[in-house]
Fold these 2 entries.
Entry 1:
Amino acid sequence: MEIGHFINGSHVAGGSGRFSDVYNPATGEVQAKVALATRQEMRGAVEAAVEAQKGWGATNPQKRARVLMRFVGLLHRDMDKLAETLSREHGKTVPDAKGDVIRGLEVAEFCIGAPHMMKGEYSEGAGPGIDVYSIRQPLGVVAGITPFNFPAMIPMWKFCTAIAAGNAFILKPSERNPSVPLMLAELMQEAGLPDGILNVVNGDKESVDAILEDPDIQAVGFVGSTAIAEYVYTKGCAHGKRVQCFGGAKNHMIIMPDADMEQAADALIGSAYGAAGERCMAISVAVPVGEETADRLVEKLTPRIEALKVAPYTAGDDVDFGPLVTGEALERVRGFVDKGVAEGAKLVVDGRGFKMQGYENGFFLGGCLFDHVTKDMDIYKQEIFGPVLSVIRAANYEEALDLPMSHEYGNGTAIFTRDGDTARDFASKINIGMVGINVPIPVPIAYHTFGGWKRSAFGDLNQHGADGFKFYTRTKTVTARWPSGVKEGAEFSIPTMD
Ligand code: NAD
């Protein structure tokens, strides 16, 4: 099967002759080939978007919001189909794939409030006979470049907000799982979106560079690994665009001696191993405070990890996690496990031998647990993005706090404790964008905003919520005076309010 693009309201076959393999990670088979667009194909999509945006930007925001309202209904109608397609290309379980769709749907629901979000500000009588008002206007044509790990949620975060704000959108999804983004574009069209407002152009670096260099694209939102985030940010800014890029992570969870150890262990299992650890908000480092806490924690984690049900998504809703996304990802993560052993960390649970009967070519890796990890090890410094949890023992709270504070990434973090003072101190001091208190995956809800600090994010403003609307709009401020307020004669000094 060949997967093409969705441009100007129609499916279009790829014309470049270049393709990328799309795997079924559970079987290891290539199930489709996705076309990789040329610069000319990208330009065609941008031209369609420029034309379409003129009418869409002038459509009143309530009418634009109604498209999203209908879109939400269609997502519910097609939930099973979307989740199955997502699982087949990504490998995550069906309940988790539904969560991927729902977290995007929640942003679509928030964007139904676009008329409210687009409201400006008005100051009557700011000076003699002078009124001042600020309005928000769409940017025009904007783009989103998205990763493989949330093929429904992250595209929706971006295009729902941008489109509700009156922009036309170019989505360049991950080439590893392109089907769900295309289905989302079809549903937006069914919901009444005019042709050319949401275009899905599949591709690789060539398409990304075409976006970054296109003079008609005003803003670019990127999510993916830090190296590419930095590249996209630097190049996009150099071409005069508004750019926000969200990158990789190494999320620590601190477990204080007073924490409920059963709850902490359950939370760690879900957040470290869910989706095979392929989440930017996965906890990949556990920091128990004190040797006794560490011993109790590792004792509780070990049997839970050994009992994890690793299987294809077709094996039922009680599967804990599935395969990694590609063979390359599997080799990379396995390489980190080998490296951790070589670096001297204690591999308490070794998932490398895991084999799935009947799915021997699938990209499966069992859950792995390292204890006695230290700050200088590569398995601590780098993002692994797999089902591997590292335990790094801290002598006290100050030492524990210093670990995430000193790490180059700053996406998410959590603390488990019963003590309000400690929790409050942690939330206040930590230099990380999203913080959980007895919550292991503190992904903010749709009407707050999502974004990391340090090398987990480049640029200004977060994703979705009020920041999403700010990113995809610009402010215009009008100062108005009517003839009755005008004094006679020319004024040569800078006007003041005196
Ligand atoms: P990736 O960086 O490989 O790909 C992201 C996007 O960039 C894709 O659309 C891809 O086609 C494109 N791309 C890949 N190589 C490129 C190149 N050389 N030049 C230009 N574009 C290129 O990321 P991924 O593997 O798809 O996703 C996993 C990463 O995303 C992890 O690091 C994870 O932490 C991160 N992530 C971050 C967040 C966040 O909000 N901070 C959310 C989800 C995922």
Note: The CA atoms of residues 182 and 200 lie 7 Å apart.
Entry 2:
Amino acid sequence: MENSRYQFSKLAGKLKSSMIRELLKYANVPGAISFGGGTPDPETFPRHELAQIASEIIEKEYKYTLQYSVTEGDPELIKQILVLLKRVYGIDGLSNENILITVGSQQALELVGKVLLDPGDYVLVGDPEYLGALSAFRMRDPQFLVVKFENDGPDMNMVEQRIRDLEESGQIRYLKFIYVVSNFQNPSGITTNLEKRKTLVEIAEKYDLLIVEDDPYGVLRFKGEFVPSIMKIGGIERVILLNTFSKILCPGLRIGMVVADKSIIRKMVLAKQGSDLCSPSLTMRLAARYLEKYDVLEQIKPAIALYEKKKNAMVKALEENFGDLEGAKWTDPEGGLFVWFTLPEKYDTMKMFRFAEQNKVFYIPGEAFRPYDQPSSSMRMSFCLPPVEDIYEGIKRLRDAFEKYRISGEL
Ligand code: PMP
């Protein structure tokens, strides 16, 4: 532990500054092109509409918007969420008691950890996996059961093997849940296919496990077929669904949600009271009135078209600049914000980062998304922020950085 005059907790002692933050320190310097940040394009935010509604609800609904809310969340927003759940997922028959509004889905992840995990418990996660989920769960000191992510979702043989091993060693009761970002996973852009979703539910039923399905990107599909959610397949008793308005509206509102069995929601409400009493009334009501007035699924269409254009540019630029490199591969997602670019195995994208930085092009090394410390030859490339011309230029710089790294001998 670092030296300090303060007596921090054991947990605080384990907290490390985020690798991503460190790496992207210089990503904003003039002339830099960053594929690092996974934030949506601010030009897609409906700022004029939100500004108008904000003014109205502060003046006219101040008794709600400037006051504490109930911990469960704004009932007006929950009403809108129930409508959206039906439209997006075809999930019906839910009531207010199945919903908890959180401060971003990041808080939802933290609450999942708080109400389900004791130190030493197991959580099944992917390699690669969403870093924020790993960080949230790590607060509870669990053990990760890691399964490889293939092009169509988790490696199901590994899932079964890991779970069978736990059962044979008498540890299965400590496996609390399977975590999966079902659509256009952060970081890989991979969508778990229908067959694997069904198998996950079958396994969860066989071993009486919960599945935590995290789906911030599902509505950002620009082509291909909608895949039914794991919650739709497995039902509310088997699956906890997390979602957020960060990608379809804007992250600054910090509104996420948990959709789950009533008894799980009740526990999470108690846990949330200890964290922040309630989510901000002002942004909850702002989102509620926005959803009432506008069709968010229609409003988001131009943004989705823009992301598709940028994704196509990235994939084309990768083909043009890395198509000749044997063993290099990349995902070609049908939605979301990320492409996962993998170099031949002997290369380490963390070591290459220095060369990329010199060329003023930024990405996140795959190592950041591994549930254990191990080098990676992959990188997360977000296509949502840079303009199309910058995407082409950035990938060219990346190839140049790769060549410099390759001849440096620092493999
Ligand atoms: N889950 C996943 C898979 C994400 O990619 C993100 C955001 N990048 C989150 C949860 C958290 O989002 P928010 O807290 O903004 O809702």
Note: The CA atoms of residues 45 and 250 lie 6 Å apart.
